[in-house]
Amino acid sequence: MPVLINSANHIATLRELGARRNAPLRAMSTMKVGGDAEYLLTPKTREDMIVALQSCHDASVPFRILGKGSNVLIPDAGVPGLVIRNSSALTGIEIQRRSVRAGASASLQRLINEAGKAGLGGIEYLYSVPGNVGGAIFMNAGRGRYFKKSIGDVVRRVEYWHKGRVRTIHRWRCRFSYRHSIFQQMEGAVILSAVLKLDRCLPEESQTRVRERMDLVKDQQDNNAPNLGTVFRSGFENLEGIQGQTDGDAMFSVRTTNWILNQGQAKSENVMALVDYARQRHASAGLKEPELEWTIW
């Protein structure tokens, strides 16, 4: 792994914030694969987060944001530069009438639970997503292409850091579409918080929707082994020979179409081999290459 952080001032700042060098990332991925980060920082406060981002900006050091690790494939060779784990710095949730301001580190489950208790709902279908608010907005997480529901439907504005400044963007400029937002095109942009407008509902209605969603997931999704959820966001056809295909301990699920599972000690290279296999099968069938939903580091 190449060393990208060599600024003494920047290293000193990271150490003051509690960063660790050569930190394992495998356990932070829902697929349980990947190597080490050159430096790993878990900011404790919003201020720490912004100091870390500004320090990277000033030192021209690359950084990556890791949320719940549910949509990112981490390479076996590790990640040069700084990985910022956005798990505890921005967890606040404030509710006023139908408006909910949620920090990017807040889990979707906590957001839905607290909104439900306050008599707000409408996004319970996201309860099964092992992610946080920031990651959900970045990917415009939703129920699926055919249900036409996503978190972007309820977003009103998003606060984010980009190139040394904290900015706010309104929903109509977020360019939400299926599994897409403008933040995927803004290199170095980091979502800090968002304001959502939810529907009114009785707390017991919200609880019922959560139970129905989790029952559906239990019935349809192969969550008995580590995975990153849906592999391809579009263009995937369940061609003969894909389901059940293996490479090392990685396997295309035989139960859930378009999922890859880690059956033991799979590596990222095994997972990518299956991704490439699916692409090759589509090419051989004269089909357009399917579009990957994951982010590959």
If you had to describe this structure to a student in words, what would you say it looks like?
The protein has 297 residues and is of the alpha+beta class. The chain folds into three domains: 8-85, Uridine Diphospho-n-acetylenolpyruvylglucosamine Reductase, domain 2 (2-Layer Sandwich); 93-219, Uridine Diphospho-n-acetylenolpyruvylglucosamine Reductase, domain 3 (2-Layer Sandwich); 222-296, Uridine Diphospho-n-acetylenolpyruvylglucosamine Reductase, domain 1 (Alpha-Beta Complex), CATH 3.90.78. 25% of the residues lie in helices and 28% in strands. It has six helices and 21 strands. The chain has helices at 8-16, 46-59, 108-117, 133-139, 203-220, 268-284; strands at 20-24, 36-41, 63-66, 72-73, 79-85, 93-96, 99-103, 120-121, 142-144, 149-150, 155-162, 165-170, 190-197, 199-200, 227-230, 232-234, 246-247, 250-252, 259-262, 291-292, 295-296. A five-stranded antiparallel beta sheet has the order 6-7-13-11-12. Strands 1-2-5-3 form a four-stranded mixed beta sheet, covered by helices on one side. Strands 15-19-18-17 form a four-stranded antiparallel beta sheet. β9 and β10 (149-150) form a beta hairpin. The chain is globular and about 55 Å long. The two termini are 13 Å apart. The mean pLDDT is 95.
